[in-house]
Specification:
Shape: globular
CATH architecture of the largest domain: 3-Layer(bba) Sandwich
Strand order of the largest sheet: 6-7-5-15-16-17-14-20
CATH topology of the largest domain: FAD/NAD(P)-binding domain
Length: 370
C-alpha cells in the first residue's frame, strides 16, 4: 500500500469483507461496510465451509491455509461449546476407479507433516462413528485436525463486534461501483447514486469481484462455477465429521442438520426468471447420496437449498492485494473463503493500516493476471 488509511469502505458482506471490516476497526480505522443485499446472503451463505488444507497445492497457499486454520483454533478455544465451529476431523475417499488416490494423497500430506491417516472399511470406525463403512468404495484418508464453520453464524458474531466498535453497515446497496478520482479509489457509489467515501476501498464481492474491478481496467481471471448447497432436516443422531466423497460432500451444521454439496449436478442448474433453479428430483438425488454415507440413516430430506456462483479465481489461487493500476483499491477474491476468512481479514487490515505489504500475500497479487 502506498500509505496508511484512516477510513475505509469495504464492499461485500461475506466472510472476507466482514472479517476485513472487523479487523480494521480493531486497528482504529473508521469503516463503512457496504453490501448489495444482506450480510452473508451471497456465497458465504451457501458455502460448505470445510476448514482444511488437504491434498496438493502450492506451498504459499498451503502455508496461508494452515495459518487460517490456526485463527479458527484460537476462536474455538475461546468457547468450544459454539455449535457453529467445531474440529472433529474430516474423511475423504475417491471413486472406485481411482482407488489409488487416497494412498497418494496420504503420502503427499504425510511428507509435509499434515495430520493424515489412511483408512479402510475395516479401520474407519476407529476414527469416526458417523460413516457407514459399506459406503466406502475405496480406501480413504482421515484428517483429524480439520473442522468446519457455519459462515452465517460467524458473520453475525463478527458484526456484533464490528458495530459495537463503531463500524457502520449499509445493506441493500444494490450493484455498486468503485469511485476513482485523480487515479485513486476514494469510495463506492451505490445503485441509487449515493457516494460513500473512504481513504481506501476493499472489494470483497465473492464471485462478482472480477466484474466490479473490470471497469477500472483490471482483469482478474475468473473460473467461478454455479453451485448449490442443501441443508437437511434435523437428524436423530447429530453428525460430527466432514465427509468428502465421490457423490456427496457433507458438513455438520447447527441444529443437528447437515449441509450437503457436490459438483456432478452443476449442469442441471439453469437461470430462470426469478434466479437460478434446479429440478427438485436432483436435490432429492443428492440427499439420497448423502444418506448412504451416514451410519443408521435411511433417508435424508432437504429443508432448503441455495444456488449461486462459487468464487474461484482463474488459476485456483487466492487474489489479495492493492491494484497497482488504482491505488487505494484492494481486491480480495478466493475459493477458500471459509478457511482463509479470519486470516485474510487480518492481513488485509494489516496492509491497509500499516501501508506495508505482508509477505504471506506476495504470491497472490492481482497483477499476475495482467
Amino acid at each position: 500500500m502506498s500509505h496508511k488509511v484512516n477510513t475505509a469502505v469495504v464492499l461485500g458482506g461475506g466472510i472476507i469483507g466482514v472479517s476485513a471490516a472487523t479487523h480494521l476497526v480493531r486497528r482504529g480505522v473508521g469503516v463503512q461496510l457496504v453490501t448489495d443485499a444482506e450480510p452473508g446472503s451471497g456465497a458465504s451463505g451457501r458455502s460448505l465451509s470445510w476448514l482444511n488444507s488437504a491434498g496438493e497445492r502450492s506451498k504459499p497457499y498451503h502455508d496461508l491455509r494452515m495459518a487460517g486454520i490456526d485463527r479458527y483454533r484460537t476462536l474455538f478455544a475461546a468457547d468450544p461449546t459454539r455449535d457453529w465451529l467445531q474440529f472433529d476431523g474430516a474423511l475423504y475417499w475417491p471413486s472406485a476407479d481411482d482407488s489409488g488416490a487416497a494412498r497418494s494423497r496420504h503420502a503427499y500430506e504425510a511428507r509435509h507433516g499434515y495430520d493424515s491417516h489412511l483408512v479402510t472399511r475395516e479401520t474407519v470406525e476407529a476414527h469416526t462413528g458417523d460413516v457407514d463403512p459399506s459406503a466406502m468404495v475405496a480406501d480413504g484418508v482421515f484428517n483429524p485436525g480439520e473442522g468446519w464453520v457455519s459462515l452465517p453464524h460467524l458473520i453475525e458474531h463478527l458484526l456484533t463486534e464490528f458495530t459495537a466498535a463503531g463500524g457502520e453497515v449499509t445493506t441493500g446497496a444494490g450493484r455498486c461501483e468503485v469511485v476513482v478520482e485523480d487515479g485513486r479509489a476514494v469510495g463506492v457509489r451505490t445503485a441509487d447514486g449515493r457516494t460513500i467515501a473512504g481513504d481506501a476501498v476493499v472489494v470483497a464481492c465473492g464471485p462478482q469481484t472480477p466484474e466490479v474491478v473490470a471497469p477500472l481496467g483490471v482483469m482478474i481471471g475468473d473460473a467461478s462455477p454455479l453451485s448449490m448447497v442443501a441443508v437437511s432436516e434435523p437428524l436423530a443422531k447429530p453428525v460430527a465429521t466432514v465427509m468428502n466423497t465421490p457423490r456427496a460432500a457433507i458438513r455438520p451444521n447447527p441444529g443437528g442438520t447437515v449441509a450437503v454439496d457436490h459438483d456432478w449436478y452443476e449442469d442441471a442448474i439453469v437461470e430462470g426468471e426469478s434466479g437460478y433453479e434446479i429440478p427438485e428430483e436432483v436435490v432429492a438425488e443428492l440427499m439420497a447420496e448423502a444418506a448412504k454415507l451416514l451410519d443408521g440413516v435411511e433417508e435424508l430430506s432437504a429443508a432448503s437449498w441455495k444456488i449461486g456462483k462459487k468464487p474461484i479465481p482463474g488459476d485456483g489461487e487466492p487474489v489479495f492485494g492493492e491494484l497497482e493500476a488504482v491505488p487505494g483499491c484492494y481486491a480480495a477474491f478466493t475459493h477458500s473463503g471459509a478457511t482463509l476468512g479470519l486470516l485474510a481479514g487480518e492481513l488485509i487490515a494489516d496492509e491497509l493500516a500499516t501501508g506495508a505489504k505482508h509477505p504471506m500475500l506476495e504470491a497472490f497479487r492481482p497483477e499476475r493476471f495482467a
